[in-house]
């Protein structure tokens, strides 16, 4: 796992820049991407990766990113 993509302060909810590959499909994150941005990026290439992403609200101010295999 590429842990360098998650910001040093996960509570801020933002990611740093970086690229990961799933099934030879690159997914690039930009500085300041939100969980919704990240989920959208995964979902836009889900036909190629076999992975979808969903943002789940845990409490009034806490959110998590959940991944599901589609293939």
Keywords:
single chain; 71 residues; alpha+beta; two-stranded antiparallel sheet; two-stranded antiparallel ribbon; 4 strands; flat
How does this structure look, described?
With 71 residues, the chain is an alpha+beta fold. The protein is 20% helix and 38% strand. Strands 1-2 form a two-stranded antiparallel sheet. The longest helix is centred in the middle third of the chain and has 10 residues. About 8% of the residues have low confidence.
Number of strands: 4
Q: Look at the helices and sheets and give the structural class.
A: alpha+beta
* CA radius of gyration: 12 Å
The count of helical stretches stands at 2
Q: What's the SSE blueprint?
A:
Layout lengths: L17 E5 L2 E5 L5 H10 L1 H4 L1 E9 L2 E8 L2
Antiparallel strand pairs: 1-2, 3-4
Short description:
With 71 residues, this protein is an alpha+beta fold. It has helices spanning 35-44, 46-49; strands spanning 18-22, 25-29, 51-59, 62-69. It contains 2 helices and 4 strands; from the N terminus they run ββααββ.
């Amino acid at each position: 796992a590429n842990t360098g993509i998650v910001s040093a302060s996960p509570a801020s909810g933002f990611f740093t820049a970086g690229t990961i590959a799933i099934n030879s499909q690159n997914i690039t994150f930009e500085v300041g991407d939100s969980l919704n941005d990240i989920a959208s990026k995964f979902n836009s290439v889900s036909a190629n990766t076999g992975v979808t992403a969903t943002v789940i609200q845990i409490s009034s101010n806490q959110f998590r990113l959940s991944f599901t295999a589609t293939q």
